[in-house]
Structures are given as C-alpha cells and as structure tokens.
Amino acid sequence: MTQELPVVTRFAPSPTGYLHIGGARTALFNWLYARGRGGKFLLRIEDTDRARSTPEATEAILKGLTWLGLDWDGEPVSQFERKDRHAEVAREMLANGTAYKCFSTQDEIEAFREAAKAEGRSTLFLSPWRDADPSTYPDAPFVLRLRAPREGQTVVRDAVQGDVTFGNDQLDDMVLLRSDGTPTYMHAVVVDDHDMGVTHIIRGDDHLTNAARQIQIYEAMGWAIPVFAHIPLIHGTDGKKLSKRHGAVGLHDYAAMGYPASAMRNYLARLGWSHGDDELFDDAQALEWFDLGGIGKAPARLDFKKLEHVSGFHIGRMENGALLAELDAFRAEIGEPALTEVQKARIEPALDALKSKAKTLPALLDQAHYALIERPIVADEKAAAALDTVSRGILRELTAALQNVTWSRDDLEASAKAVGETHGLGLGKIAAPLRAVLAGRSSTPSVFDMMLALGRDETLARMQDQLG
C-alpha cells in the first residue's frame, strides 16, 4: 500500500505591480486546497524579469496576501536567486541528451520563419543544430534548447479541463538557457516546482499551453509530474477579460472600498468554484468543501451586487471586537487614524443595530457618524431646517424630561412620546430635530439607538449645545 504524498501547492506571482484580483483568487484556491488537506502552501516570487521586478511590488503582493488572510509556509522563494540551480539542471539535460546547443542567431531564426511563411509551412523553428556533430560547433554564443519529441502527442491530464492533447509537431525546442547563461521562465518554473516538492499546480488557464511544454521538461529529467488544474479567468460584467476598464482590478482597491477580508475570501472562492447552491459560508466550511472537482470550465464574472450581498452577510455576523478591528484596518488602508477609545465606546453599543444593515465598512462608518464627531455638533443644511422655533421649544422640554429618567430604550421612548403628546405630535415629528442635534444629519440610525450609544451625559450635552 503506497502512502499518498502530502499536498503542496504554491502561488507564484511576478512582482511587477499590485496583486491582481485574479491572482488573489489563484492564491486563495491554492491555500484552500492545501490547508483543507493538512498540506503546505508555498510562495514563490518570480522575479527573473529584472527590468520590471521591484521590491515595492513584492511588498504590495505580500501585503495583499496578508490582508486577505492567507498564510504561507516558510520564507518566500526568490526565483532569481535560484538561477544557478536552473542552469545546473539545464546542463544535466545537455549531458543526458535531452537538451542541445543551438548556435542559430536571431537573424537566422527570423529568416527561417519568413521562408516557411512564404512557402506555407509551419513557422515553428527547427534548429539545424539539434543533431549536429559537436566537432562542427563554432566558437560562438549559443543557447541550450530542449530536445523535444517531434512525433506523437503530449497530454496534459488536467483536474479541471480534463485531458488536453497537444501534437508534438506543434511544440518547438524551447530555449532553456539563454546565451548569457540565464534561465528562461518556462524552464525555471519547472525546476522550482520540482525542488519545492509541489504536488498540485493550480493556476489560470492561460498557462495551459505552457503546461504541455513544461511536462516535456519533467519527462526529460525523469521527474514526477504534478497534478495540473487550470482555472478559468475572471471576466467583467460584459463577459470580456477583466481589465482596468472594469474598475477595481487590484486587491488593494477592494480593501480601500471597505469589503472585509472574510467577505473577499467567500466571494473569491465562489468565482469559478461551487459547492451545490451554497453562496454564503465561513472559512471552516470553505476549507472542508473546497476541491478541484467543483471548479467550472467557464470564465467567472465579477458581480459587485453579489459581492455587496456577501459583504453584508459577513459584516452582520462578525463579533463586535473583530468588527472594530476591521474598521481600524480599513481606516488605516485609506489613510485615516484609528478610532479613539471614546469613539469605540460610543460605537460598540450600536454595532448590533448598525451591522445588520451595512454592506460595507464605510457604509457602517457613515451610519456611525454621530459617534465619531465631537461637540459642538454642526447640523448640515437639511438637518438644520428641522430646528425651527417650535422644535427647539419641544427639545427644551425633552431635555428637562430626560434629566432623571432611567437610560433605557423604553424610558427614553416613553419620555419622548409623552412630550410629543402634549403638543399633539407623534415620535416621528420629534425624531427630525433630535437627529439634527445628535448627529447634525437628517438621515441617521434610530434616535434612541444613538442616545443609548452616546450615553446620558453626551446626549444631554449635545441637546443643550443646540438650545443655548
């Protein structure tokens, strides 16, 4: 009985910019698959493109993954720092005959392709050095090419796409090492995945053709081929490949818009993967349910209405302490200071009411505006219109009535109702001027929720400020 290898997945972004939402979903799928099976989730920074790779981009990627709540095992691996290992494997392939030296220049390759095109032949480059006698080698720069099979087929046995077959006559002898001795991306990826013990490669289906070429390197080295799972890309609402014209494409955009990380994990998991009809779930459920068989073949579409629905669900079920921490993290993301202890003390009693309606963190903060502002409260134009002479007189009576009541919702409502009845007014007519003095706005949470959250002293102080 053979024992199954522990699952090892990886996320391998190029540090040339921010963490794209498609990359974030790929990372999440790899994390869920590994963590749900007690395996390892590794991180590799594919920084071989030295002209475009930056430390700032690497930092942005790490920050994005951390914000999303994805942890990785060990230190991130730099692909560039492993270039000597990549070259070593290429030389092993040269020694075992699965690679060869090619001295063809770029001009010669271009001339071959132009002639082939003119004659109606395949423009796939066929190197004249593939079977050349080493005694004929010139003293000139060369690249190392894979001696790929010319006949037969290479089959990618994909856990999402099924078996995908490529004719070997459509795959060229790709370059492994350039003439300056640096490895190509295609070669480096295979060596890194092998050395890191990766068992499952979960990535975008734009890499499907790459998989066929990379399998040939695995076979040339006699290495075990990992399980491939190529997932469909994310499209915009118009069905076209996601790009900046669709708005937010970077994970940091979603953090700045105030979607909690737990909501993003839930939403991204459902972009291309399903578990029955389940739309709303927590991390424990996602880790238990996630499998490769649940990934569809069709591109997923970004849907902001659905994201808001998911976000509202997660905000609504969040514990108050965790929600306050989320609010601080959001404010830091947009460059605002953390909530003060006084602000937190005012917001917390109102959170149960606020979070049941808010779809995003800024929407919740907007409803909690009354708890964040300090005296004296300045009413906006619409709210100030409710503070006419009659209303001020009623508020003066209510202020006196509230001096000694028990600060409970029932007693506050009873006092307001009693004052209103003496003037033939219902609670609705008293609420508008109360909103103006407590929050400076005409649209607020319940006036009694605000009074309970602010407490007796702050509520009465705000009322007295306006009444003079």
From TrEMBL:
Lineage, top-rank taxon, reads Bacteria
Q: Name one GO molecular function term.
A: glutamate-tRNA ligase activity
Positions of ATP binding: K244
Name the catalysed reactions: tRNA(Glu) + L-glutamate + ATP = L-glutamyl-tRNA(Glu) + AMP + diphosphate
Q: Where is this motif: 'KMSKS' region?
A: 241-245
Which parts of the sequence form the motif 'HIGH' region?
13-23
What the entry lists under Gene3D superfamilies is as follows: 1.10.10.350, HUPs
Give its localization. Cytoplasm
Annotated Aminoacyl-tRNA synthetase class I anticodon-binding domain ranges read: 340-466
Q: Which InterPro entries would you find in this protein's record?
A: aa-tRNA-synth_I_cd-bd (IPR045462), aa-tRNA-synth_I_codon-bd_sub2 (IPR020751), aa-tRNA-synth_I_CS (IPR001412), aa_tRNA-synth_I_cd-bd_sf (IPR008925), Glu-tRNA-ligase_bac/mito (IPR004527), Glu/Gln-tRNA-synth (IPR000924), Glu/Gln-tRNA-synth_Ib_cat-dom (IPR020058), GluQ/Sye (IPR049940)
Key word Kinase present: no
Q: Is this entry keyworded NAD? A: no
What are the alphabetically sorted keywords of the record? Aminoacyl-tRNA synthetase, ATP-binding, Cytoplasm, Ligase, Nucleotide-binding, Protein biosynthesis
Q: Which CDD domains match?
A: GluRS_core (cd00808)
Enzyme nomenclature, EC number = 6.1.1.17
Which is one Pfam family of this protein? Anticodon_2
Q: What class of enzyme is it?
A: ligase
Domain Glutamyl/glutaminyl-tRNA synthetase class Ib catalytic intervals:
7-308
This protein's assembly is summarised as: Monomer.
User: What family does this chain come from, according to its entry?
Assistant: Belongs to the class-I aminoacyl-tRNA synthetase family. Glutamate--tRNA ligase type 1 subfamily.
Function field: Catalyzes the attachment of glutamate to tRNA(Glu) in a two-step reaction: glutamate is first activated by ATP to form Glu-AMP and then transferred to the acceptor end of tRNA(Glu).
Q: Which PANTHER family match?
A: GLUTAMATE--TRNA LIGASE, GLUTAMATE--TRNA LIGASE, MITOCHONDRIAL-RELATED
Question: What is the name of the protein in this document?
Answer: Glutamate--tRNA ligase
Q: Which gene encodes it?
A: gltX
